[in-house]
Specification:
By secondary structure, the chain is of the alpha+beta class. The chain has one helix at about 20-35; strands at about 1-5, 15, 40-45, 50-55, 55-65. The radius of gyration is 14 Å and the shape is elongated. The two termini are about 25 Å apart. The relative contact order is 0.30. The mean pLDDT is about 90.
């Protein structure tokens, strides 16, 4: 899943490809926003972890994984 995370007072969004499902990501966001969790944490497909304080979350956009096209082809 491609995930874009907006952080308050940060000029750029965080973009990562996560191996978690959309439902798992949505559940983690809900826990961070309702106060159950103090941080919002995700890991990408390379094993790196992104941890954002829950009170600094501006938005989380969950999308489909982007297919990377390589080479030349007809459109």
């Amino acid at each position: 899943m491609e995930v874009k995370i907006g952080v308050q007072h940060a000029p750029r969004e965080i973009v990562l490809d996560s191996t978690q499902t959309a439902e798992e990501i949505e559940k983690a966001v809900a826990q961070a926003l309702d106060g159950t969790a103090k941080v919002f944490a995700l890991s990408d497909e390379h094993g790196r972890r992104v941890i954002v304080p829950a009170e600094r979350l501006a938005y989380v956009e969950i999308g489909e994984p982007s297919v990377r096209k390589v080479g030349f082809g007809t459109l």
